[in-house]
Amino acid sequence: MTLRGKLALAFSLFAAVPLAATLVPVSRALGRALTTEHAARLDGAAAAVQKELARLGEHAAGAVADLARAPELEAFARDRSADGAELAEAAARAGEWMGPRGLDVLAVLEPDGRVVSSGHLPGRAGDPDPELGDLPDAVRPGRAVPRVVSRAGPEGVEPVLALVAWAPGPGDPPLRVAGGVALTEARAARLAALTGGAVVIRSADGEVVAAASAEAPGPARGWRRLRLLFGGLSAAPRRTIPLGPSEAPVARVEVSLASEGLARAETTVLLAFLGALAAGVAAAAALGAVVAARITRPLEGLRAAAARVAGGDLAARVEVRAGGEVGELVRAFNAMTQDLAQGRARLAQAERIAAWREVARRLAHEIKNPLTPIAMSVETLREAHAQGRADFPEIFDEGTQAIGEEVRRLKRIVDEFSRFARLPAPERSEVPAEELASAVLALFPAAPAGVEVERAIAPDLPAVLADRDQVMQVLLNLVRNALDAMPSGGRLRLVARSDGDAVAFEVSDSGAGIAPADLERVFEPYFTTKPGGTGLGLAIARRIAEEHGGSLEAASPPGAGATFTLRLPVAAAAVRQAPGA
């Protein structure tokens, strides 16, 4: 990670930690407030359910007592006593009395518990009722208790939880009336509506008898998940109301409440805190980025300038303003690069002076060599003339020939030096590479005796961007050197091939080759291994290659002659590399 990134991250963390430290206690306080409020509401809901269950029990006991005093029951008892036997239609009479009094369970019983008439289970008439027959022994009249009662339903006889009560009726012996209200899904829904929450009625073995909920679907669950996520209620609390003896209840009613209103408030506050946290972190990150940019911009400038210096650009400078130690570092760097540039310029000047001194020394040496035979020839002519020798014409002819040959040698040395010192800039244009290779070989229509010329030009070679005359001069020099290296004959090979973004021209011979010690010096001015050579041909050839953006290299494997490779960039690549392209 960069220094700028580290500073921005540090600013973000410094802003996030205090905000997060504030968020945690606020979240816990909201959770405790929600728990306290929810518990109070849940206690109120449980009290409302208990009150409603008590009202249902009182309703059941009142309806049973009312029926026990009703004239129709007295008439029923009187008719039954007068006949001395049960009436055939007596079994269905309870069903007629049950509905108008709001009862779901109703039975008229003999003192021994046998059913005289049953509204919820007519088929039990004449048989003992094990569920309601023992009520007089278990509870006093006028008090409702929970019982699981069998009731006829659409799918047959099914158990139902009911609040039942009993009352003594008329007759001799007196009848007993037992009845009550069933805790069905509809009544569970009424209980849930009273509380605004959820009500589940379970039997003693935990089986759900009836259940209903007044909570909103979907969104409520979503708010609850958010509340649990941000530290609200860990679970949905509930209150349990036993039905029957507390030590062995017949059933129980579970009451639970949704606290979505407060949960929304808590979540809204938490989301606001999270928004503030995110905004604070973002603002701190932005501030950190600005501060980091001010701090690191000079350092990044230094890094970029150092990379340019490493690449050889000593003109690189850091233009970013900075103060303090960083500013001093920037100024020191700029001063250092300026000193390096000046030092390199002085070194280049010194190298140029040294190079020209070496060239002058070599040139003086090359000029001095022909001057010696010229002076000796002149001295011999003078002596022969002064002595009046008879063979003076022959001596004169030989001396003037030697002087003329040495003068021509001097002229060649001066011409080569002039070309080396004043080589014109290349006038480049697109030249087909195949044409260059063919033109060089065309200058040698007949190979020297004993020399075999081999040509290997690849098809479809791209054009090169070159000065045709200068490149021809290089290739001709290489071919002549190859022929000179094979005075007794051999094989001359010219190859032209593509080499990436360049075209390579290889000129090889099968001569004696170049000694390893001389291989690195063959391109030095005035270095030559040929008798009468000036040592400037290959130096001029390399200079031409380099001014074309190419290269000239030499190789000489032991026993395999010498190979010179001229590489010139193809026209498209040369245009891409040109300044401003």
Number of helices: 14
Gap from first CA to last CA: 36 Å
Provide the succession of SSEs.
HHHEEHEEEHEEHEEHHHEHEEHEEHHEEH
Q: What overall form do the CA principal axes indicate? A: rod-shaped
- Which structural class matches the secondary elements? alpha+beta
Percent of residues in helices? 40-55%
Main sheet characteristics: 5 strands, antiparallel
Rg from Cα: 60 Å
- Give the uncertain stretches in residue-range form: 218-235, 574-581
Strand arrangement, largest sheet? 2-1-5-4-3
Q: Number of DSSP strands?
A: 16
What is the oligomeric state here? single chain
The percent range for strand residues is 15-25%
- Given this structure, which CATH class of the domain at 429-577 is correct? Alpha Beta
Give a quick summary of the entry.
It contains 14 helices and 16 strands. It has 581 residues and is an alpha+beta fold.
What attributes does this structure have?
single chain; 581 residues; alpha+beta; Beta-Lactamase; Helix Hairpins; Heat Shock Protein 90; five-stranded antiparallel β-sheet; five-stranded mixed β-sheet; disordered C terminus
Structure description:
- Helices cover 52% and strands 18% of the residues.
- With 581 residues, the chain is α+β, with helices and mostly antiparallel strands.
- Among the domains are: 69-182, Beta-Lactamase; 324-421, Helix Hairpins; 429-577, 2-Layer Sandwich (Heat Shock Protein 90).
- The strands form four sheets. A five-stranded antiparallel β-sheet has the order 2-1-5-4-3. It has a five-stranded mixed β-sheet with strand order 11-13-14-16-15.
- Helix 1 (3-68) packs across helix 5 (185-195), helix 6 packs across helix 7 (260-310) and helix 10 (433-442) crosses helix 11 (468-484).
- The model is unreliable at 218-235 and 574-581 (pLDDT under 50).
- Residues 119-140 are annotated as: Disordered.
- It is a multi-pass membrane protein.
